[in-house]
Amino acid sequence: MQLIPAIDLMNGKIVRLSKGDPTTAKIYEEKFGTPLEAAKRWRDEGASKLHIVDLDAAFVLGDNLSVIAEIAKNIALPIQVGGGIRNYETAEKLFQTGISQVILGALAFSDPSAIGKIQKKFGFDSVIVALDNKDGQIMVEGWKTATAMNVDDALEKYTQLGVRNFLITSIAQDGMLSGPDLQTLSAAALYPNAKITAAGGIGSIGDLVALKEIGVEGAVIGKALYEGRFTLREALQKIGA
Questions:
Q1: For labelling alongside 130, which of 25, 84, 86, 87 has CA 20 to 30 A away?
Q2: In the CATH hierarchy, which fold is given to the domain comprising 2-239?
Q3: Each residue's pLDDT tens digit, 196-228
C-alpha cells in the first residue's frame, strides 16, 4: 500500500481543514515551512508520491498554480493534484507544470467526456476520479453540492468509462483523526478493475494497518502527519510500503 503525504494549499501556505470547512483552516508554516520545504521533507522521509490540493481553486478564491509548479520543478516525485479542476484547460495547465495525475471531482460528474480527452493526451493513468462522499452520497464543488450518485454507482459508471484510479474521501471523517470509513472502503476495494486510494480520518498507524488489510492501493495522510501523530518514516517502516 502506497502512503501519500498531503499538501493542502490556501494563500500559498500549507493548511488543514476539518470536514472541508474553510473557516477551520489551520496553518502549518511555523513547523513545516513553505509548501516546497514540506515537499522536500516528505521526499526525504521516503514518500514515493505527493498529493496536493488547491483549496483556493476548489472554493473559487484564486489558485496556487505557481506553488504547485515550484514543487513539481524541484521534487522528482509523481504528483497528483486536485481542487478546482472544472475544465480541460485547467487540467492542461497543471500537466504543463510537470505533475503526473489530476484528481477530478465536479468535472468528472458534469462532463465525463473530459476524462477521455485528458487520458488521450496525458496517458491512461493521468486521471483519478474523486469520490468524496457524505453518508455514501457523492459531493462535489468543494463538498457543497450533492450529486445523485452513491459510491457504488460511481464506481460502476467510471470503470465502464475506462477509469481505474479512484480517491475515496469520507467527508464526515476528514481532518477529524477519528479513523477512516472502513465500511465504504472495504466494499470499494472489492470492486473489479478499480484501484482505490483512501483519504479522510487517518489518525494513527493502526488506521493504516486496517486500510492495508482491506486491500486499498494507497492512503493519503494529512493532518496526522502535521499534528505529529506519527512520522511518515515510522508509517512506512510499519506498513512496509
A1: 25
A2: TIM Barrel (3.20.20)
A3: 999 999 999 999 999 999 999 999 999 999 999
Q: Which of 8, 54, 181, 207 is catalytic?
A: 8
Q: Which three cell numbers stand for residue 237?
A: 517502516
Residue 50 pairs with which residues in a beta bridge?
79
Task: List, in sequence order, the alpha helices (H) in 147-229.
Answer: 151-160, 182-189, 205-214, 223-226
44 is catalytic: no
Residues forming a β-bridge with 131: 168
Could you tell me how far CA 185 lies from the centroid of its own chain? Answer: 15
End-to-end CA separation in angstroms for the chain = 6
Please give the backbone phi and psi of residue 8, each rounded to the nearest 5 degrees, phi first: -95, 130
Active-site option among 54, 63, 132, 174: 132
Alpha carbon dihedral 15, 167, 145, 187, in 10-degree steps, equals -130
126 closest CA partner among 92, 101, 105: 101
Q: How far apart are CA 51 and CA 8, in angstroms?
A: 8
8 annotated active-site: yes
In our burial notation (b when 16+ CB lie closer than 10 A, e otherwise), range 208-218 reads bebbbebebbb
| pTM for this entry | 0.96
Greatest extent of the chain over all pairs of C-alpha atoms, in Å: 45
Alpha-carbon torsion, ordered 13, 16, 18, 20, to 10 deg? 60
The whole-number pLDDT of residue 146 equals 87
- Collapsing DSSP to helix, strand or coil, 126 comes out as helix
Q: What is the phi/psi pair of residue 218, to 5°?
A: -155, 165
